[in-house]
Amino acid sequence: MSWIREGELTIIERFCANIIKAGPMPKHVAFIMDGNRRYAQKCHVERQQGHSQGFDKLAQTLRWCLNLGIREVTVYAFSIENFKRSKEEVDGLMDLARQKFIRLLEEQENLKKHGVCIRVLGDLPLLPLDIQELIAQAVMATRSYNKCFLNVCFAYTSRHEISNAVREMAWGVEQGLLEPSDVSESLLDKCLYTSNSPDPDLLIRTSGEVRLSDFLLWQTSHSCLVFQSVLWPEYSFWNLCEAILRFQMNYNALQVRKPDI
């Protein structure tokens, strides 16, 4: 399965997309893609098949986002906490990552056509060396594209990210590169993995869970949070439209609360 599934919207989907795009649209959407394991259990298939179906759904969702004019998407692909799962499941997820990053390198023309810049955010040294190398190749291959951005959070948790940022600032003070008075929210923001991206306008979590699970805690403090009961592999264009409509319904309140930058 390609990283971006080819294909256009149906007539009715195009019609609804045009209506939705008449209102304020999120420029950056984050997804907690939850429910792959429950989907596998529901369909009586192996967990690995559920995770593979979840990646296929990501490819389809990226196409929908492109059609809706959403230029940046961030996804929670693998939490540091996931290393605590069974060795079999973790090894399976690492194998899936290998397959998908190899596939990405094979379809650079498709990514170039859409102008997709891939960024991988997290504590990458925690990953197997060969996956680190594949990630580096993928990031380098797409670094000059700027029509849209896909941020893949891999070996990531928000607390880990914030702790790293604090350590960087503390090191700067210790080395005399910073004054203690230089330490601020804006400086911490620049030390985060997401420093090249605006904060998400909309965060969507599937599967019915209503928690952030240590994902983008700093960046989503003023985002619209939408929790949907659908399992991620069953996510549809209409689920995405519902989430965007909820963002639009709360748009004015979100703008009032958004801090001046």
From TrEMBL:
GO cellular component: dehydrodolichyl diphosphate synthase complex; endoplasmic reticulum membrane
Cofactors: Mg(2+)
Gene Ontology BP, a term: polyprenol biosynthetic process
Gene Ontology MF terms: ditrans,polycis-polyprenyl diphosphate synthase [(2E,6E)-farnesyl diphosphate specific] activity
Catalyzed reactions per annotation: n isopentenyl diphosphate + (2E,6E)-farnesyl diphosphate = a di-trans,poly-cis-polyprenyl diphosphate + n diphosphate
Subunit structure: Forms an active dehydrodolichyl diphosphate synthase complex with NUS1.
Name of this chain's protein: Alkyl transferase
Organism for this UniProt entry: Callipepla squamata
